Fold each of these.
Amino acid sequence: MGANWHDQRAEEYERRSVEEYFALEAAEPIAQIRKIGSRRIMGTAHGLWEVASERAPYWVMTSPTALYAQGGYRDLEDAFTYHLRAWAEVMDNHDTDIPDEQRDRLAGPWRQWRQAADALAHAEEAEEFQAIAARCRQCLLALVHEAAADAMVPEGEQPPQRDNFLQWSEHIAAAIARGASAERIRAHLRATARSTWQLAAWATHYANANDHIATLVLQATYHVLVSFGLILCTAEHDAPQRCPECASYKLRTAYRSEPGGEIVPLVFCQGCSWEELLPAAALSPAEEQSRG
Ligand SMILES: [Zn+2]
């Protein structure tokens, strides 16, 4: 069977990397080696190996690979718990890279992404991996729903349908990364949005979807959220907290199409008629000093 053949190849590959790791870390010849199991936690498969030298028995666990002398732990569970803590630290550091402001601005999409990532921990069948890709699509749609504004659409054009991800992501990219100096940023936002959307759409219907494909879609979606969140927040960042005319806190960010066709972000007061154009903050580090 194809699946068994694939599993055997994967195990053989893992065995070799465990042997190489053991040779480096323990620097003792291997007397015995066998796989005793594998655990999948949060979408990551950790292989569990028992490796003995002439002198002592060890466990080697993968993702990330580490060696544990059996004498140093109560039992396998104890050692595995220790292993997971080390792994969780790596994951946590990855996660906390995103500033709260960017997370809050796209709270809905991030919630969807987290649910999709959690689902990977329990997925076994192709349909379950397809469902993760489908959830990533919902997450991308939530991104355009939260970031889109009709004023981002150039004069004379109809706003796209609410769920037209490809067109909305183009308009959003043009509005939040504007001007000649932001051309590369704009192109990057558009290209990653487009290819991630198409990847997720394909994986949603791919009959042989597996954990590698679901992981790829999750990572690509993660990258789109991070990129759009960063540029969106930077574009909106320098808005004042209170209206300078009436002191109201009811300030909102909006976008307006200028006579030349350029889309500019502005902040306006809901309490009076005050409004002000926002600088192209993504591109002017000089504005950095005014941050609270
Ligand atoms: Zn006001």
Amino acid sequence: MPLLARRVGRAKPSAIMVVAEKAKRLKSEGRDIISFSIGVPNFLPGDHVYAAAREALAKDSGQYGSNRGSDALLDAFLAHIAQIGLNGYERANIATGIGAKHVIFNLAEALLDEGDTICFATPYWTSYFDIAEIVNAKIDLLPCPPSQDYKMTPAQLDAALAKKPKVFLFNNPSNPTGMVYSKDEIAALADVVAKYPDTWVITDDIYNRMVFDGLGYHNFVHARPELRDRVIFIDSLSKTYGMPGWRVGFMAGPESVAKAVATMNSNHITNIPEVVTAAAIAALTGPQDVPTQKNAEFSAKRDQVLAMLAEIPGIVCPRPQGAFYVFPDVSCAFGKTHGPTGLKIGNDVDLCNALLEAKGVACVPGSAFGEPRALRISYTCPTPQLAPGLARFKQFFDELQ
Ligand SMILES: Cc1ncc(COP(=O)(O)O)c(C=O)c1O
């Protein structure tokens, strides 16, 4: 039999989905499962989004569309990013894709030749690692432990960029940690970025509307507008508008890069379908009450999760200020046994398995994000499930011996 390409061997199925699948299976077997595992927003977009999709369906031309995205969609996105102070971009600076993941994949192909280096922080969003592996890039990880609030320091970034990577990939607010860089922190990192003109910077900021505590969202381009010719901003409808399955992602950056992404599109997806485009425009330009309400709900849920974790001796958890994740260091449990079930906890994967088996609570092991001392709690579950899920989590830790 002929062999598959080597890059397939480098691509791994998402570790996040493995836990979610196991939780689903247990649920189908009749177990009472509360899932804190998957990073979906768990709300639906407003009615105006569905109305726009229905109207577009009635008028659908059934034809191919623009590789870059329709002009109306590009304009809606331009207006959207102007609201967060990313002004002065034009259509030529924008490209779309089938979700932010696809845009990042396109960028990896457009910016990285085999053997080029990409650097990013640990903990990282799982797909960064896998996409870099698929395009056969060298990966330089910057460890950002809880003792530095899971954030990279300017000195760390300076040391990494001094090695002249082709791409620096940054994520703010972060999945999996929920941490958000302050205005001053962004300014300090932007000063470092400015010293290294040969490195492209991708800022995957798809949670930019989900920032709590009045901290605000900040980008390197706000701090240093001259970086605009190297910084590529990534956004998505998935989390902000409760539209992960609609698959719409964007980039705003230098014209040459947007053109390269559109060229990639022309060779695989061709275009985002008309009906999806209409829904996306409605989400971006319509009433913003759903995202605003959800933001308030998520920050309250974040507080509930943190309050529970604070009651467990040994758990260390920097306070997240965005997205909908909490990422506690749970290594205090390693080497212990869960009394009632006798399940032994050697590492994060054992811990997540035992928690699921014993209490029906699904979390994602931190090793999926390059940080095996932690686990990720995604707190977007229906509100009535949150308190019982947290109580079970706490009880599990109380029962460790
Ligand atoms: C940090 C980050 N970037 C990108 C994505 C992908 O988003 P999309 O659904 O637009 O592909 C996710 C999804 O979980 C994410 O957490």
Amino acid sequence: MKINYKITIGVLVISSLLTVVLLKNIFERKAEAGFRYVELVKVAEDDTNPEKWGINWPKQFDSYKLTAQPTKTRFGGHGGSEALPEQKIERDPWLKRMFKGYAFSIDYRDRRGHAYMLEDQEQTERQTKPQSGSCLHCHASIMPLYRELGKGDAVKGFEMTHQFSYKELNEMLHSSGHGHSVSCVDCHEPNTMKLRVTRPGFLKGIQVLASSKAELPQLPSIERWRESGQSQPYNPNESASRTEMRSFVCAQCHVEYYCGSAMPLEFPWSNGLKSEDLEKHWDETIFPNGKRFFDYKHKESGAEILKVQHPEFELWSQGIHARSGVSCADCHMPYQRDGASKVSDHWVRSPLLNINKACQTCHHIDEKEILNRVNIIQDRNYKLLQRGGKSLMDLLDAIQKAKQNGISQSELQEVLEFQRKAQWRLDFIAAENSMGFHAPQEAARILGEAIDYARQGQIKVLSIE
Ligand code: HEC
Ligand code: HEC
Ligand code: HEC
Ligand code: HEC
Ligand code: HEC
């Protein structure tokens, strides 16, 4: 029985090795969670100025300030100077035609670092069309103003802000001293520094999502909450795991939304997080005036169009990384070693500028090879996206020609529905900022559907003529 004996020893060695690895992992995680600091000043809920927090946590503050640095990758960040980022609508002319009739056809640029979020919003020429106060939800450290407006109740204050014009609310923000970009207090509870979410739009959205029937294997705390048959609504600040919180703090803003003056800001998650779930939510939404929901009427065709905005959280949630418990912060705010302690890099930016810390902690392959793999994914996505743009332009050409030939708006009704569906999908991937990386196969599926709907619309026009 010599062989069995050897196997038993082997199994014992392997299992004790595994235990050591596991313990090491647990100790490391504990060390990460239980970081130490000297509290030199007291920070509180109304301290939106990050400089004050920087006195206690200088390392995080130093890296946070670097979001003012210009960065550039093939598809990410923006170009090198102090000037405003490049116009997306000039680079891809089909985007401009797709947005005809909407402020995005006037000015739509590359995003840049968090330090600029308030300034860029104040300066965009989209402001030449009156915008609503809801815009500030994701571009400023606005919680104290919500509390002030709601007389202590932030959600109540938030629900009033869509009725203010952007200019009015922006003035109130600055005069109350809270004219800052996203700040420490937006993601951290000031007494304990624990991660937390603050934004009412997210809190409402995630509650509605939790109450839906959508399968959410990537968000296990929601599944647990459902199984336990809780009577209280899902509260991420109580129920979410630390891993989930490392994505939820970003999902306060990097999501699709409605932001106009007709209703409060809304995240469309009542049917789930997939592209078609969000579309269904909007299709089922009725404006207070009784009309079906849409963001704008397309200037050439008259179709009632849905505009998509940066659905990073939604697309990420359909990918293999989310499924494997890899959070936004793992890639966009990786730990840096600092002597014996670890500091989360608060220079939130493209992980491709930091592959060593952002990817190689998990992927033990050459940096160049990692970059190559990302390049392949992004190239494929870019090419399919351009094809999508071309097919939509062909549909718009066909509609224009039909109109010149005297085909009426009502005869075109079905065609315009195809345009709405095609644009929703095309824009979903165009507006998402990872050029397909966050969930490559899902991005390809959505673009495939976009092309299909555009071509179906085109065939339909030809059958009318
Ligand atoms: C597995 C790593 C990974 C995870 C997890 C991840 N991202 Fe990304 N993200 C990337 C990569 C890679 C890019 C492409 C960067 C580029 O093209 O320069 C990207 C791009 C972005 C961009 C555009 C960056 C720029 O410089 O313009 C944003 C914004 C973004 N991600 C937000 C998020 C959010 C929010 C989450 C979580 C919901 C998330 N990411 C999760 C890897 C990740
Ligand atoms: C309060 C809203 C808000 C939160 C919270 C937020 N972001 Fe952003 N983020 C923005 C806005 C707005 C911009 C664009 C700023 C601009 O272009 O002026 C942006 C830009 C970015 C960029 C592009 C940076 C560059 O250099 O081009 C990345 C990457 C990013 N965010 C990732 C994240 C991640 C990861 C998280 C969570 C840890 C997060 N964001 C949390 C609103 C937010
Ligand atoms: C739910 C959160 C949210 C709301 C509400 C929001 N934004 Fe943003 N905004 C972002 C994020 C995240 C980015 C960075 C990603 C990107 O550029 O796609 C961004 C980027 C921008 C940019 C820089 C890139 C560009 O598009 O030119 C401008 C300008 C901007 N927003 C203006 C506005 C205006 C005006 C409103 C109100 C109509 C608004 N935002 C409402 C989250 C939001
Ligand atoms: C967009 C959200 C966001 C903002 C804004 C933000 N942080 Fe963080 N912070 C995080 C995340 C995510 C972690 C990682 C926490 C974890 O994994 O438990 C973190 C971790 C920390 C930690 C714990 C130690 C570490 O480095 O991991 C400190 C201290 C900290 N942040 C300080 C600050 C300070 C100071 C500011 C303002 C200058 C700030 N943070 C702004 C998201 C944010
Ligand atoms: C915390 C761990 C972790 C980090 C950090 C991480 N990954 Fe991953 N990655 C995974 C896991 C897990 C998978 C799923 C495949 C597997 O189980 O090996 C995966 C899969 C992938 C895949 C193949 C799947 C696909 O979507 O096509 C690519 C490419 C990839 N990662 C690139 C990156 C890049 C680039 C970064 C840094 C920006 C990164 N990863 C950061 C854990 C990680």
